[in-house]
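User: C-alpha cells in, sequence out, please.
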C-alpha cells in the first residue's frame, strides 16, 4: 500500500499540443494581460516569419490560419509565448520545476525548445520549412494521383483497440511503425493508409487517402465485428505517412546545419544534452544522443506518433505525477488525463493534470503545483 512521504517534489512533465488546436484570437488574452512580455515576443515571431503571423492569429480568417504552413508555426509559437510569460511574469523556472518535456506531434518542436535542445528561432524556422514541405507533399499527391487526403480518428472501447490495430496491420501489410515507411514506399499515394497516431487506450488516428480509409474501415468492421466511431480531423494533409517522405528528407538536411541565432552561427542547430529529458514521438522514450535526436525528429514526419506509449512510460515507469499542458486548446490535457486520471490535485499520487491555455488558468495551476510540491508517493 502506498503512503505519503514528505521528500523531494514529485516528478513533473510539461507537454505541448499538436496541429488542430489553432483558433483565431488564441493569443489575444495573453497580449492583453501581459503586454510588456508578450508584445516583444510577438514582434520576434513576426520578424522571424517574415510576415505578420500575429495578425493572422488575431484576425484570421480561420481557413487561412488552418492551412498547414500557417497553423504549425502559429501553434508552436503560441505555446512558447505562454511558456515565456510563465517564466517572466510568474517566476516559473522550467529547468528547476520540471523533469521531462514532450509534445504531441507538432508539439515536439516546442518541447525541444523548452528542454533546451534547440533555440526558439531555430525551431520556428524548422517548423515553417517542414510545414511548407508537408503542404507541398499533399498538393503534389492530389495533382499527380487525384483523390482526397487527410486524417481520421477512430474511437473505440479500450478492450477492442488491439484487435482493431491488428486488423489494420493485416489490411495495410505491415506490423510495425518502424517498418512502415519502407514497406509502403512503393505503394501509390492514392492507396496509402497508415496509423499516424496511437493517442490513448481507446483512440488511434489513420492517415492517407480518405477513400482508402473508408475501405479499410469496412474491412475492420468485418474482420473484428467492432464498429469504432470515425471522426474526420481538421487537417489538410495526411501527416505521419510515407507521403511526407520529402518533408522528412528536408528535416534531416536542415538538422545537420548550424544555428540561425545571432552569435551562434558556428554552433550546431541541435544541442545535447538539454536541461531536462525530452520524449521522442517515434520511440516513446527519451532521446539518448544528439544523432538519435536528429534521426528521430526527422523520421517523425513519416512514422507513428506513439503518444500513449510515451504517457504510459512516464506514468508507470518514471513515476511522473504532475503534468502541465502548455499551449492552445485542451486536446493534449484530455489525452494525458485518459491514461493517468484527470485528477487536479491528487493526495494519493501527489500530483495532477493541469492545462494552461488562457491567463485565467495560471494561478490555479501554480497553486496546485505549490500544494503538491512536497508530496511524493512511496511504494
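Assistant: Sequence out:
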Amino acid at each position: 500500500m502506498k503512503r505519503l512521504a514528505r521528500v523531494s517534489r514529485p516528478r513533473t512533465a510539461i507537454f505541448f499540443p499538436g496541429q488542430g488546436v489553432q483558433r483565431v484570437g488564441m493569443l489575444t488574452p495573453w497580449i492583453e494581460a501581459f503586454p510588456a512580455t508578450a508584445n516583444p515576443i510577438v514582434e520576434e515571431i513576426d520578424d522571424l516569419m517574415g510576415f505578420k503571423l500575429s495578425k493572422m492569429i488575431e484576425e484570421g480568417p480561420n481557413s487561412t490560419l488552418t492551412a498547414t504552413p500557417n497553423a504549425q508555426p502559429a501553434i508552436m509559437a503560441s505555446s512558447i509565448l505562454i511558456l515565456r510569460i510563465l517564466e517572466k511574469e510568474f517566476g516559473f523556472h522550467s529547468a528547476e520545476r520540471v523533469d521531462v518535456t514532450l509534445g504531441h506531434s507538432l508539439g515536439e518542436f516546442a518541447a525541444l525548445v523548452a528542454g533546451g535542445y534547440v533555440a526558439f528561432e531555430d525551431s520556428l524556422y524548422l517548423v515553417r520549412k517542414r510545414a511548407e514541405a508537408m503542404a507541398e507533399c499533399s498538393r503534389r499527391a492530389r495533382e499527380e494521383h487525384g483523390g482526397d487526403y487527410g486524417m481520421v480518428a477512430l474511437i473505440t472501447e479500450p478492450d477492442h483497440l488491439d484487435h482493431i490495430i491488428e486488423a489494420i496491420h493485416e489490411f495495410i501489410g505491415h506490423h510495425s511503425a518502424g517498418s512502415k515507411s519502407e514497406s509502403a514506399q512503393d505503394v501509390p499515394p492514392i492507396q496509402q493508409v497508415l496509423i499516424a497516431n496511437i493517442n490513448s487506450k481507446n483512440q488511434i488516428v489513420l492517415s492517407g487517402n480518405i477513400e482508402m480509409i473508408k475501405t479499410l474501415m469496412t474491412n475492420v468492421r468485418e474482420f473484428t465485428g467492432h464498429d469504432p466511431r470515425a471522426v474526420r480531423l481538421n487537417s489538410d494533409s495526411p501527416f505521419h505517412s510515407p507521403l511526407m517522405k520529402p518533408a522528412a528528407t528536408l528535416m534531416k538536411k536542415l538538422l545537420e546545419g548550424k544555428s540561425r541565432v545571432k552569435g551562434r552561427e558556428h554552433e550546431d542547430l541541435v544541442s545535447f544534452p538539454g536541461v531536462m529529458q525530452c520524449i521522442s514521438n517515434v520511440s516513446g522514450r527519451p532521446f539518448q544522443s544528439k544523432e538519435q535526436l536528429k534521426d528521430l525528429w526527422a523520421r517523425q514526419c513519416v512514422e507513428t506518433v506513439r503518444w500513449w506509449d510515451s504517457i504510459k512510460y512516464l506514468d508507470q515507469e518514471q513515476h511522473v505525477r504532475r503534468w502541465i499542458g502548455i499551449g492552445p486548446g485542451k486536446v493534449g490535457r484530455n489525452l494525458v488525463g485518459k491514461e493517468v486520471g484527470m485528477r487536479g490535485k491528487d493526495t494519493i499520487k501527489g500530483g495532477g493534470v493541469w492545462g494552461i491555455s488562457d491567463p485565467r488558468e495560471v494561478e490555479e495551476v501554480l497553486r496546485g503545483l505549490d500544494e503538491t510540491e512536497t508530496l511524493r508517493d512511496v511504494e
